[in-house]
Amino acid sequence: MKSLIILTIISQLLFSATPGQVERYLSISNAEEELLELESQFSIMQNNFQASDTNTSEEKETYDMQMLSIRFREYIQTNLSEDEMEEILQNYKNIILLQFISASSNSDSDPKEVDRYVKTLKEDPEAQVRMDLVEKISKELNHKESMVLMFDNLIKPLMQAAPGGKDLDANYMKKSRENYLKDMMEKANKETLFASKDFTMEELEELLKIAQTPAMDHEMKAVYGGMAYALKEFFLSLASKYDISKHQR
């Protein structure tokens, strides 16, 4: 048994992505920007929870947000092999993917503007082919399995650890998961539509080919898994302050 553990550790050290590869990946993808945005949003959430906490008799614990980035890097490095990471980095040499990443990184997009654009497309019969193509791209970039992993590793433990969480039955949890998945997939599709609004049909076809590569599959699974791994402890730290009644539907 001891020998098996040692061999597993050695295997991970030999075949995991290198720190240099991870840093190169983070410098050209928008994965770290998304994590930092989450870090900022959850920091505000934590502060709001603390501000509304009337219990002054106990010292209020603050989660170290820097741990999110550390844990995310750790997960990416240990869950992607050196060869897989090299394939991912090769994908990022494609100008179409870089243009899409740049468009997706635009954090100034007004949600109302996104909704207006999507509504305009839906009202245009000639835009259906474009919408179908972008939906295929979105599904490749936002796996259902990865979305479910986010729910199972973050939302579900948060709900179960919150006051009253032990009373939630399996049917309620199943419905919550279905609603979460539906909302996340719809949001992802809208964002992909808006980010690719200036792309030609030929460029979208090229983007779909990239999205369908094994390298992209490896990347998306690692990114979503890394997000869940990085955020899990933080979510659980909020459990005692989470009001389930405000999130039921």
Structural class: mainly alpha
Strand percentage lies at: under 5%
What is the element string, with H for helices and E for strands?
A: HHHHHHHHHHHH
Number of helices, counting only DSSP H or I runs of 4 residues or more? 12
Radius of gyration: 20 Å
Form type: globular
Span from first to last CA?
48 Å
Largest sheet: none
The percent range for helix content is over 70%
Number of strands: 0
Low-confidence stretches: 2-14
* Mean pLDDT, all residues: 83
Helices, strands, pairings?
Blueprint: H1 2-15, H2 19-28, H3 31-52, H4 66-79, H5 82-91, H6 95-104, H7 111-122, H8 128-141, H9 144-161, H10 170-195, H11 201-211, H12 214-237
Helix pairs in contact: 2-5, 3-4, 4-12, 5-12, 7-10, 8-10, 8-11, 9-10, 9-12
